[in-house]
């Protein structure tokens, strides 16, 4: 763990402790059970509750010690969880559906956010999705990008076949700013915020405004084997992360510092803007609603992200997330 991150975590821990952290974890307490939590992407504002849970010792207060593992050269949280090298992982809900269709027995047990984050970000002058006919849209190469582009354009009455797609990797911000593409699928809370910080106000076509139901975009996953053998530890970890979400709500500036240090960036203003954008989506903490998930499953099958509708009963365990809590 970088020294700057260690210092920032210690500072947030002191602040939380001084503001009435729950008792526990004293010298005579049993040693906490270690859990490795693998991130899906470089540290960013979505991960703030995870870092806050560790910084404020919320994990140890609940009998677990969460070790956050950043990704290597590419997103590997799914592989680490599936092979048992991590007990928890952060994953996009659509990647969960794809992984399970390909045979990975992983299960979502909590939701980091409670709404879709996917959107098409378009340059000014493109006022609605069907205006992208005859224009160039950059896609990352992930299978979900063409599916979302198709769904959003089609819902607006446009013809996706008339949109030119080019693969740009994860350079949506620079490509849109330079005008090399007219639009790209993004997360509105991340790239959308970054574009505005750089002086361009994109038109955002959010997927839940164009036919998608409200669903939790980013989920916490575990393997079926880990769920069977460490159910109590996983429940305690979710309790700790929910407490971390409340700490983020109470001390957002400290959360910004921790995330910025974890991301090794000095641009705290960008992290703050991204956290401000996503914070409302944290509430209610970690909740998984079966009715919402069934609507999401039907949507993913309809737009072709997966061939068959995901089985919500086996893809999710909705019983572990804390109930009746709010970050407000």
Textual characterization of the structure:
The protein contains 14 helices and ten strands. It is of the alpha/beta class. A five-stranded mixed beta sheet has the order 2-1-3-10-4. Strand 6, helix 6 and strand 7 form a beta-alpha-beta unit. Helix 1 (3-18) packs across helix 2, helix 7 crosses helix 8 (191-197) and helix 11 packs across helix 12. The longest helix has 20 residues, at 231-250.
Main attributes of the structure:
5-stranded mixed β-sheet, 10 strands, 41% helix, alpha/beta, 3-stranded antiparallel β-sheet, disordered N terminus, 328 residues
What's the arrangement of strands in the largest beta sheet?
2-1-3-10-4
Q: Look at the structure and give the mean pLDDT.
A: 90
- Please give the alpha-carbon distance between the first and last residues: 31 Å
Number of helices: 14
Task: List unreliable stretches of 5+ residues.
Answer: 1-8, 13-25
Oligomer: single chain
How are the SSEs ordered, and which strands pair?
Elements: H1 3-18, E1 33-38, H2 48-55, H3 58-61, E2 64-69, H4 77-82, E3 88-92, H5 93-101, E4 106-111, E5 118-122, E6 136-139, H6 144-155, E7 164-167, H7 172-178, E8 183-187, H8 191-197, E9 203-206, E10 218-223, H9 224-229, H10 231-250, H11 252-262, H12 268-278, H13 290-302, H14 312-315
Parallel strand pairs: 1-2, 1-3, 6-7
Antiparallel strand pairs: 3-10, 4-10, 5-8, 5-9
Helix pairs in contact: 1-2, 1-11, 2-10, 2-11, 7-8, 10-11, 11-12
